[in-house]
Design goal:
mainly alpha; elongated; about 140 residues
Amino acid sequence: MAEEANPPEIDETPISPIERRNSLEKHLQTRPDMKDLKDRHILLDTNAAPALQSAAQDLERQRATDSLKKGLEKRPEREELVEKNILPHSNAAPAIQGQQRELERHMRADSLEEKVKNRPKPEDLIKEGILQADEDPTK
């Protein structure tokens, strides 16, 4: 048979009252102050009675939940935000949307540059009757 594991022995030697008092004083000296415990969210920062603190915390959490729900109900739909140009009209991942906008901007610049290079001369527009002779922009 397998050997049974013996539980570790517990030290039951009595502690003298002086040692106990010294140990307690030592621990009380290193005890964090109330402000530190509140800053670390160990103690609640409230003036309510301890019996009411739990109910007050639940009410505050419920108030925040209700506020968030109300805000989400009033939130406009994505399509509406796209129409108002608040959100980009893109289905790309957010990580690459900046690169996509930059690419679109360069493509527009290239397109405009190409159109400027290929635009008709004022003489051609006068011949075609689009401009009058006195509207020649070169003169």
